[in-house]
Automatic annotation (TrEMBL):
GO annotation, cellular component aspect: cytosol
E.C. number: 6.2.1.1
Classification via PANTHER family: ACETYL-COENZYME A SYNTHETASE, ACETYL-COENZYME A SYNTHETASE 1
GO terms of molecular function: acetate-CoA ligase activity; ATP binding
Protein name: acetate--CoA ligase
InterPro entries attached to this UniProt entry: AMP-bd_C, AMP-bd_C_sf, AMP-dep_synth/lig_dom, ANL_N_sf
Lineage, uppermost ranks: unclassified sequences, metagenomes, ecological metagenomes
Keyword ATP-binding: yes
Keyword vocabulary terms for this entry: ATP-binding, Ligase, Nucleotide-binding
Domain AMP-binding enzyme C-terminal positions: 197-275
Single biological process term from Gene Ontology: acetyl-CoA biosynthetic process
Length: 281
């Protein structure tokens, strides 16, 4: 977005771009600057909007759909990995009804499942391990020079299936909802809390642009929840707002997900592809 927050939209208008594909983190950063930046441009050339890299929260999805797509562009929320060689779970534009925040259904020929740690199939709306039951042409063949590591990382935990390392749940309609990396889970008093779930609750507040959640040592709970929050451009930091955000998470998810500490941050560290680097927070 350098040198101006509307750089993307300037390019879309200038070159009549018809497909725009980006990460939710980038969208939230753009949202933070306000609607006036995209509203200055003619974005009518766009026909498909894409999301990739991490779960997209419903609030960012709706902003993307209404402000950028003007309510006419389908959003293709894709799930895939470098290791898979292509998209595995995605809505087909115009063919599969979408739900804000869901990657919807597997691509034809792909057979995913959501399992518990013991290998049993998770119930509807129960979070678990996302696996792929059958091979497909694009799947990586090995890790160069490390065949043992390749097998142990992807095929030992659930024998005969590809272990993605991502968490997911399946809703009543069979739609897949990605929950982030399995290792991005905080064990609070024996309850497993996904960081993506808490982050989504935080960014659903009207004052928040971005959020990152990590675990912290807690002498009673074992692990506590530490939240880093980036506010929208026109919002003032205050202790009252901190309390309001903590209460908001408690209301959205429940007492067990209440952040133990909340810190305002002017920006969050990201990879080149736009993913938040939680490991350095």
């Amino acid at each position: 977005t350098y040198p101006h927050p509307d750089r993307f939209w300037d390019i879309v208008e200038k070159y009549q771009v018809n497909i725009f594909y980006t990460a939710p983190t980038a969208l939230r950063a753009i949202m933070r600057e306000g609607d006036e930046w995209p509203d200055k441009h003619d974005l009518s050339s766009l026909r498909i909007l894409g999301s990739v890299g991490e779960p997209i929260n419903p609030e960012a999805w709706m902003w993307y759909y209404n402000v950028i797509g003007k309510g006419k562009c389908p959003i293709v929320d894709t799930w895939w990995q470098t290791e898979t060689g292509g998209i595995l779970i995605t809505p087909l534009p115009g063919a599969i009804p979408t739900k804000p925040g869901s990657a919807t259904l597997p691509f034809p020929g792909v057979e995913p499942a959501v399992l518990r740690q013991d290998g049993s199939v998770a119930d509807v709306n129960e979070g678990g391990y996302l696996v792929i039951k059958k091979p497909w042409p694009g799947l990586m063949r090995r890790v160069y020079g490390e065949p043992k590591r390749f097998k142990e990382t992807y095929f030992v935990q659930f024998p005969g299936m590809y272990t993605t390392g991502d968490g997911a749940r399946i809703d009543d309609d069979g739609y897949y909802w990605l929950m982030g990396r399995i290792d991005d889970v905080i064990n609070v008093s024996g309850h497993r809390i996904g960081t993506a779930e808490v982050e989504s609750a935080l960014v659903s507040h009207e004052s928040v642009a971005e959020a990152a959640v990590v675990g912290m040592p807690h002498e009673i709970k074992g692990q506590g929840i530490y939240a880093f929050v980036t506010l929208k451009a026109d919002v003032e930091k205050s202790d009252a707002l901190k309390k309001e955000l903590v209460t908001h998470v408690r209301k959205e998810i429940g007492p067990i997900a209440t952040p133990d500490k909340l810190q305002f941050a002017d920006g969050l560290p990201k990879t080149r592809s736009g993913k938040i680097m939680r490991r350095i927070l």
